[in-house]
Specification:
By secondary structure, the protein is an alpha+beta fold. The protein contains ten helices and seven strands. The protein has a seven-stranded mixed beta sheet.
Length: 220
C-alpha cells in the first residue's frame, strides 16, 4: 500500500534529513531529534507547517538554539519552548532536553501517528517509526500509545486525534476515545478542572472535547 510505504524508514529518514537541513543547515554538527506531527505530511503530501526539534541533552538544545539565533532568527517564548519562524514555518525547540534516545522520545507521545521521527548526528540520519504508527495507517484509524504518558493532557490528545482523523479521512475508534474519558472520569474534581485548564491553554479547542469534558466533571 503506497500510503504505508510513505512511513517506510527510508522515506522518513530522507524527509527528516531534508527538513532539519533546511532549518539548521547541512553543516550543523550537533545532535537533534525531529519528531511528531510533521511526519504526518508524508501521508497528506503537503509541506509541514511546523517542526518540533528536540535536544537530547541541555547542551544539544543550546546548540540548536544558538544555530537558529546565529541565522538571525528571533525567538518567541511559548509555554515550555522557544519558538522561531523559519521560511514561514513555525519551529519549536522544547525546553525539555530529554530523553537521550530517539526510541524513548517516540515512546513519550500519546498518538501513534506522532511516534515517528529521526535522529540527526552531524549530518548522519537514522529513522524511527513506532509499530503502532504503521498499524494506524494500515487500519486508517487514529490509535493511542497506552498507557497514556501525558495523561494530564489527555483532552488535548483527544482533540488532536479527532483533528488528525478529520484531516486524513481516518476514524478514532470508540475504544480509544474511551481510554481518554476513563482517564478523565477517574480523577477528582480539582484534577478534572486542572485538566480542562491545560486543554484550554493548549489552543486545541474544538471537536466537542471541551464541552463533553465540562459535562462530565464531578462538580459543575
Amino acid at each position: 500500500m503506497a500510503v504505508v510505504a510513505a512511513l517506510d524508514p527510508l522515506a522518513v529518514a530522507e524527509f527528516g534529513r531534508r527538513e532539519i537541513a533546511s532549518v539548521l543547515g547541512e553543516d550543523f554538527d550537533g545532535r537533534v531529534f525531529l519528531a511528531g506531527g510533521a511526519f504526518r505530511t508524508l501521508l497528506t503530501g503537503r509541506s509541514p507547517r511546523d517542526l518540533d526539534l528536540w535536544g537530547p541533552t541541555p547542551e544539544d538544545r543550546d546548540r540548536i538554539v544558538a544555530r537558529l539565533e546565529a541565522q538571525g532568527r528571533r525567538a518567541a517564548r511559548h509555554p515550555f519552548s522557544d519558538a522561531f519562524v523559519v521560511d514561514g514555518r513555525d519551529v519549536e525547540v522544547p525546553d525539555m532536553a530529554e530523553p537521550p534516545t530517539l526510541e524513548e522520545r517516540l515512546a513519550r507521545f500519546d498518538l501513534a501517528l506522532s511516534a515517528v521521527g529521526v535522529e540527526w548526528l552531524a549530518g548522519a540520519v537514522r529513522a524511527g517509526v513506532h509499530p503502532l504508527a504503521m498499524e494506524s495507517v494500515e487500519r486508517r484509524e487514529v490509535l493511542l500509545l497506552k498507557p497514556l504518558v501525558n495523561w494530564r493532557h489527555c483532552l488535548s490528545t483527544l482533540a488532536r486525534a479527532r483533528r488528525y482523523a478529520e484531516d486524513l479521512g481516518y476514524s478514532v475508534p470508540a475504544e480509544e476515545e474511551a481510554v481518554v474519558w476513563r482517564t478523565f472520569d477517574e480523577q477528582h474534581a480539582d484534577m478534572q478542572r486542572g485538566m480542562i485548564e491545560r486543554y484550554e491553554r493548549a489552543a486545541m479547542r474544538g471537536w466537542g472535547v471541551g464541552e463533553e469534558a465540562e459535562a462530565r466533571t464531578h462538580v459543575r
